[in-house]
Structures are given as structure tokens and as C-alpha cells.
Amino acid sequence: MTRSSDAIPYRSLDPAVEAAIRADRESGRLHPLRFCDEDLVRREDLPHDRATLLRPGFARDIEKIINVPAYNRYADKTQVFSFVENDDISRRGLHVQLVSRVARNIGRLLGLNTELIEAIALGHDVGHTPFGHAGERFLSECYHERTGRFFNHNVHSVRVLDELYRRNVSLQTLNGVLAHNGEFACQQLACAPMDDFDALDATVESCIADESVIAHLRPATLEGCVVRVADMVAYLGKDRADALAMGVLDDLECFESSYIGRENAKILNNLTVDIVNNSYGRDCIAMSQEAFEDLKRAKRQNYQLIYEREGFADGSGNVVEEMFQEMYARLYDDVVAGDESSPVFAHHARNLAHCSSSIDADAYMAGEPNQIVVDYLASMTDSYFMALYEHLFPRSVKTIVSRGYCADLGRG
User: Fold this and answer.
1) What is the CATH number of domain 15-307?
2) How far apart are CA 352 and CA 69, in angstroms?
3) Please, are residues 242 and 249 in contact by the beta-carbon 8 Å criterion?
4) Which of 77, 82, 80 minimizes the C-alpha distance to 92?
5) For the chain, what are the domain ranges?
6) 3-class state of residue 284 by DSSP
7) CB of 98 within 8 A of CB of 384?
8) Is 273 left (phi over 0), alpha (psi -120 to 50) or beta?
9) What is the 8-class DSSP label of residue 351?
10) Which residues of the chain have pLDDT under 50?
11) Is the separation of the CB atoms in 385 and 321 below 8 Å?
């Protein structure tokens, strides 16, 4: 494996913008549209959730999110490459940390609320399926076939935080989580108000009924806008680095760039600089025309050379799709039959009741069967999914062959 040379320079903040940021710091001046902790809204006004000097409002959201069981499961959920045992390859847990780091850095320079940014970033993927975006697609197809409704991980992330574990997370954090999923379809991303939980609930329902709604979502805060853009900035170059490590790419010469660069460190630096230069003091998050055009090209080339495979090699992707279909049907039948020996009762419902402040196992299992199955399948890590499939279908010849740690070594 060789790394390509990248002639694009590391870009710097505009001197006038840098001077203005330094002056802001000296005077304690913040962005005029910074979301203030005092304006935070929760579904329930509980005394123990009120902000204190020790635990400000959005700091509480951060702590709520990292203590939700779904957060633990980030560690074994696919980011891009599914069938590989390699601790150096990004999993979803690292991805959300990278998004948080990029977004907080941009937000800090712009004078925004970095704790709100961190809460949104750390929670934005808690509803993601095993096996990355391929798993998301497989689950949505199973769900849509039976109900006419759609599954999307951003919408389900809100359900995880707001209903399944009912942690009383703020409206502003949940809005940012919901609206993080979408392309940076223009150079400028502006806010769209969401004033109360009735609006959140209506938007969630509209996304489930018609997934095209998601493409039109915009965050209600500039902090949410920053996270949405940082999501792309964080994965664009890192996924290339992982593809190099996996041997999917020999080098980066196959990528073209005229502004942001081809390698991860340069992409992170140059997009961060460009976003700050073009967003400072404004009511939107923006980038230059040069950066935007290069970003679109970079994403397009990533799709062509990396994402279209989704890490699914040697037919394993088709096997996983078939496994989703079989597992969905089996678990659905178990729910309808009221089979309490099924793992959907023994593992999923009981664990939810144990860990949630709102779920009663019997009442939950009396709900809509498809939703219960979706909740369970989406909660699974890659390895749990495979282990459960083997448990449910011990005679199946379907198997997933992972590339092990020592696959590249000869036998001793």
C-alpha cells in the first residue's frame, strides 16, 4: 500500500476572521444565534432534570445519551466495512466521536453552544442498525413490505432516546438528531424552527409515513446545522483511510481534488477552515463554491470506489439480506403467537423494561408487532445479529465469512 502525494495545501483561516474570533474571545462575545441553555425545552419538567451549576442543561443530555444501553452498542456496529475483524477499522462508536470532535471545533470557533453540539453528535446514530447503511436498507424493506411505512436510522434514534429509554432528552438535541440525516444539498444550510414536542412528533410520523420528507429536514439550531455538516466532514477522509487499510484502495491517486485535498487530515483541516471562514457571524452554516464543488466530487468518488460495496464482499451482502428477511419473519411470528421463550421476549422486551424508565414489558409486547421487531433488529450489533441467527436457524447453511485478524499470515 502506498499513500499518494497531495499537492493541495493546508488552508488557513482568513486573517480578518481569525482576528474577529480572537477579539470575541477577549471580550467574551458569543454568536448572536447561539442556543442558550436557559431556553432548553424538555418533554417533562422534572425537578431532577433542571439545570444546575454542576450539571448544565445540555451537559445533562450528553450524560443521558452516553448512559443509554444503545450507546454501548456503537462499538460493534458497522461504519462501512462489515465482514472484517480489525480493531483499526472505524466502527460506529469512533465515527460519532469524530463527528463530535469536528463539530465542536467548528462550533467553538463560531461561538456556538458546544455542549448542545456534543449531545447531538453523540446521539445522532443510536438508532442505527447492524451492518451499516446496507442493514438499514434491508430492515426498511422488510418493514415497508408489511406496513407501507419506512425505517430510517435518524428517526429511530429519536425513538430510542425519547420513547424506548425515555430519558427526557431536550427538544433541541432530539431535533438535531432527527435532522442530521441528509445531504448538504446547497452551499448554505439555514435553520427551520421547531418550537415544541408536538412539532417533533408530527415530523417523526411524517418521516415514517413518507421517507422523502427526510430530504427536506433542516435543524432548528445552528448547532444542529454544524453537526449535520460535520457528519460528512468526519467520514469523508476517514473512510478513505479505512479503505487503504483494508486494501480496497492501493493509494489515493484515484481521487481528484482541486480544493479540499484527498487525504483525511487535509480534508478535515480544509473543510473546517472553509466552513468557519464562510459561516462566521452569519445566520447559516456555509462553505465556498470551490469547497462545495470539491466536496460533491469527493462524495461521488467515495460512493463509486468505496460505498457501493459497503464492505460487502464475496456475496455476503446478499446473505445478510436473506438473514434479515428470515429473522424478521420469525420474530414477527413469535410476537403474534405470544411465544415468551422467544428472544424478542426474553432478551429484548425484558432488557428494555429493566433499563428504561418508561417501558413495561407486557404493555410493550401488546403493541404493534412490526414495530417491536424493528426495535429489536435495529438494536442489534453485527455480532449479536449473527449469533441470534445461528440460534434461531441452527440448520441453516447460510454463513458469513469474516476476514480474520490473521488472514494475511501464512500458517506456521
Assistant:
1) 1.10.3210.10
2) 9
3) no
4) 77
5) 15-307, 316-392
6) strand
7) no
8) alpha
9) H
10) 1-3, 313-314
11) no
Secondary structure (3-state) at 188:
strand
- Residues in the chain, total: 412
At residue 168, the pLDDT reads 96
Residue pair 330/392 in contact by the 8 Å Cβ criterion:
yes
Q: What is the pLDDT, as a whole number, of residue 53?
A: 85
Per the CB < 8 A criterion, the answer to whether 35 and 223 are in contact is: yes
Find cell 422534572 and name the residue: 46
Per-residue cell: 93: 462508536
Q: What's the CA gap between 90 and 79, in Å, rounded?
A: 6
Task: Give the single-character DSSP code of 91.
Answer: B
Q: Is 407 exposed, middle or buried (0-12, 13-18, 19+ CB in 10 A)?
A: exposed
Cell reading at 216? 427536506
Q: How far is residue 227's CA from residue 275's CA, in Å, rounded to a whole number?
A: 12
Residue with cell 424538555: 42
How far is residue 59 from each of residues 109, 124, 159, measured CA to CA in Å?
A: 19, 16, 20
Looking at residue 186, its pLDDT comes to 80
Q: How far is CA 140 from CA 164, 209, 235, 325, in A?
A: 19, 12, 23, 11
pLDDT of residue 405: 56
Q: For the whole prediction, is pTM greater than 0.85?
A: yes
Q: Which residues of 72-88 are buried (b: 16+ CB within 10 A; e: fewer)?
A: ebbebbbbbbbbbebee
- Name the phi and psi angles at 70, rounded to 5: -60, -25
Identify whether the C-beta of residue 376 lies closer than 8 Å to the C-beta of residue 137: no
Instruction: State the Cα–Cα distance between residues 288 and 276, nearest whole angstrom.
Output: 10
Q: Which three cell numbers stand for residue 118?
A: 456534543
The single-letter DSSP state of residue 190 is: E
Neighbouring-strand partners of residue 247: none
Residue showing cell 458497522:
78
Q: Residues of the chain with pLDDT > 70: what percent?
A: 90
